Amino acid sequence: MRNTIFALIAVMAAAIALTGCEKNMHISDMTFKDGGGYAFYKGKPYTGDVWSDDDKTACFTYKDGKLTVMTAFHDNGQVACTAGQKEGEGSKYFDTEGNAIDEMTFFGTYRSVLESVAETASQMQRRSR
Known about the structure:
Number of domains: 1
Order of helices and strands: HEEEEEEEEEEHH
Strand order of the largest sheet: 1-5-6-7-8-9-10
Strand content: 25-35%
Radius of gyration: 18 Å
Helix content: 25-40%
Number of helices: 3
Structural class: alpha+beta
């Protein structure tokens, strides 16, 4: 029984170590086309998440190099807005508590989120080829 517990602990520790070593990809790791509409890593179309360099302002999800979802965050880590690139997927906006709000309220209240996303977009533009 004791050996089983130690084996279980060893497996859990290995799993934690392996998942903890996963590196987030950041804007500074990538090159972009069309101002961020397409992402490339080492010259190849990228699939996965690309985070703002601060790991908290925004996350961009790409599939086969094409942007599919953009998510921006409030300073407290709550999702501020999401925008999908598929037909029929509109933007969704949230307050700092995670409650859905309308677009006008979001744009009128959370100017700092918009400024942060604009700076992130500017960084992507500078890395475009």
